[in-house]
Amino acid sequence: MKVAFLIHSLEVSGCRFRVLQYLPYFKKEGVEASIHFFKRHWLERLKFYNTLDRYDLLYIHRKLFLPSEFWYIRKKAKKIIFDFDDAIMFRSSGSKRPYSFSRRIKFAYMMRCVDFAISGNEFLKSQVLPYHSRVEVIPTSIDLSRYTLKENVPKEGPITIGWLGSSSTLKYLSNLMPTLEKVYQRYPDLQLKIVCDQFPDGMDVPIIKKAWALEDEDSDLKSFDIGLMPLSDDLWSKGKCGLKILQYFGAGIPVICTPVGVNRDIVQDGVNGFWAQNEREWEDRLLKLIQEEELRREMGLRGRRTVELSYSLEANAPRILDICKKVSVF
Questions:
Q1: Can you give the pLDDT of all 330 residues of the chain as single tens digits?
Q2: Fewest CB atoms less than 10 Å from the CB: which of 62, 110, 128, 211?
Q3: For residue 12, which of 47, 33, 37 has the smallest C-alpha distance?
Q4: Which domain holds residue 210?
């Protein structure tokens, strides 16, 4: 089976965790997989589209096309799978008008035309179903061989509350800053570590600013004592697939999150982490985990087990390959 994967870039986290990490498994199973990038110029795109008949399957990650362009892709490709892990049919968080007519038109047309859709969570699946019944949820997963557990040693020095993510999601952490400042006033032996490419300023909390680097990701995660995943409760956030939480769990770090979308599925409140829906709950949960080292360790280990069972590459790579095989022959 020959599969062409069409993605944005090697650096985009969605491409890494929804496509690239599965390629070694695909190749081991005898699949001839090739990576192709979205081209800016029409002639470059056309040149690629005219080669699609060489492949048994075109696997598109996240990109919405104009109906006219996707009509041509559909004409050239034998079979098409569309995989997505964001609420791309809506505008992003913070927009005054979350509903987008142009995005919905593109999404609806593509869903009617593809042979199969793979969504990152149930909310995203619900957006496909009005247009296509062949859709399955496969959650974003991580390769646990890349994540080692935080050592179980007595904590010395300040408690490190950690957040790892892209600058596009930094706004969610910024909304939490007043609460973190209040917690710091009650527990001064505290620091916040942000792993990102941009950083907030003017906060009354000690902040460690660490530029993200792939080779440092595991050690950065293990430097956290508590991981944060705040969100806003809106349509865009409901499409999020919980990657931060999975990465924290991979290192055995307990999590406090906003219970929106898939966060409610990954985190069992009071078992492998905590939900927090308002300032008081964020403050209470943070103080509890700061003060109870054994609880942090227990929740982190349960989080790691959660990933092993349902959110690991090992658990979900065979599912994706099985879908590809079935689509290529029906």
A1: 999 999 999 888 899 999 999 999 999 999 999 999 999 999 999 999 999 999 999 999 999 999 999 999 999 999 999 999 999 999 988 788 999 999 999 999 999 999 999 999 999 999 999 999 999 999 999 999 999 999 877 777 899 999 999 888 999 999 999 999 999 999 999 999 999 998 987 788 999 999 999 999 999 999 999 999 999 999 999 999 999 999 999 999 999 999 999 999 999 999 999 999 999 999 999 999 999 999 999 999 999 999 999 999 999 999 999 999 999 988
A2: 211
A3: 37
A4: 145-310
**Region of 261 on the Ramachandran plot (φ > 0 left; ψ -120 to 50 alpha; else beta):** left
Same structural domain, 176 and 285: yes
251 and 181 part of one domain? yes
